[in-house]
Amino acid sequence: MKTLRTKQQQGLQGTLEVLGDKSISHRSIIFGAISSGDTEITHFLPSEDCLRTMQAFKDMGVSIERAKDHVLVHGVGLNGLRQPKHSLNMGNSGTTTRLMLGLLSGQPFTTELFGDQSLSRRPMKRVTEPLSQLGSRFKVTGDGRLPITVYGSTNLNPVDYRLPVASAQVKSALILAGLCANGTSTIIEKQQTRDHTELMLRAFGGEIEKQGLTLKVAGKPRLIGQLIRVPGDLSSAAFFIAAATLVPGSAITLHNVGLNPTRTGFLQTLRQMGANITVQSRSAYAEPSGDLLIQNAPLHAIVLTSDDIPSVIDELPLIALLATQAEGTTKITGAEELRVKETDRITVVAAELRKLGAEITELPDGMIIQGGTRLAPQETDQVDSHGDHRIGMMLAVAALLVTGNLALANESAINISYPDFFADLNQLIPTRRTAL
């Protein structure tokens, strides 16, 4: 149980460099492992999820050295992975699982993947079914969840596949399987999603062409190890951006935040709500980044539909919190994907914020949020992450608006993506009171 810092009178102040991007950290390990030569990774995110990806490749014979956020991967090439001596533990990492399903489809051995209780509830057929079109074979539980056995093959066929849903993870799994196929695969997205896999594949020397929503991936490339500088994770920075926007008198600077255009939907959404966010400097590498200045600002309600959701899917719990403080009524639809995250995030967000007096109506694919709500504990002074890292961090931000005591149950879930979250939040709170 974690006692949360509650209502701030002075506002958040100071500067911070958030931890490395989770999506890019995962992919840097994957591409480093299947490349020839060494890959050096700086500002790597040493979260539980990313360490699961690292351990999986160690279990398949890849030598990896890590000192804090600096990683050296001694690549073995696309065909150099070895069959692990035991089943691979995915922990709570859906990204590791879905991307590994694609890559392991094209390896000359059989592998079993399993995860924790939460991950084992999450659907995987959306990945295994399209992968089967390349000739991939899987043994899954009756409803398509973990544990899953992957029967790898070095004779995969190229695929021509149109994605029925907007999913960067499914797309990435197909790209990784396509690298192992005999020929060029064509993948057509329903909507533009995060393109970290495409950018990194090009950086390592792979051949991938993009025209509109159509990707063409050449099989059997020779990838070469690279130097990867991981930018700060915008999805992690989002919690501090929201906090500074909401707490009166706040003005903070976040250094080296990833500004990939496929990831900046949260910034665009907050600006539509009236947030005061300024990009002070930019840098261009394989992934663009920059420094952000965020100042407290009054907000107004917005409407988000299915066209908006892919670019803000991870930040929707935060948007719901922001909407409770905005003027007017916010409506979110087209977000049914939230129901199959680490938790059912529609139900959990509504239930936990209602404990603080929020007025939220659940929809099958979203929620309606009444703004202008003064948050205060109702019948309990305890909120719960339900084992979901993003819910836990969202509630810690909500606590900054609450007068009185508030405790967070299952706070350890935050370690899945941001083990230093509370320490970093403390840096921005100008007070001598006891630290979080």
From TrEMBL:
GO terms for molecular function: 3-phosphoshikimate 1-carboxyvinyltransferase activity. It comes from the Bacteria. Its main location: cytoplasm. Coiled coil: none annotated. Residues 8-425 form the Enolpyruvate transferase domain. It is an enzyme of class 2 (transferase). Pathway: Metabolic intermediate biosynthesis; chorismate biosynthesis; chorismate from D-erythrose 4-phosphate and phosphoenolpyruvate: step 6/7. The active site is at 314 (proton acceptor). Keywords: Amino-acid biosynthesis, Aromatic amino acid biosynthesis, Cytoplasm, Transferase. It is found in: Cytoplasm. Belongs to the EPSP synthase family. Catalyzes the transfer of the enolpyruvyl moiety of phosphoenolpyruvate (PEP) to the 5-hydroxyl of shikimate-3-phosphate (S3P) to produce enolpyruvyl shikimate-3-phosphate and inorganic phosphate. Monomer. This is 3-phosphoshikimate 1-carboxyvinyltransferase. It comes from Sporolactobacillus shoreicorticis. The lineage of its organism: Bacteria, Bacillati, Bacillota, Bacilli, Bacillales.
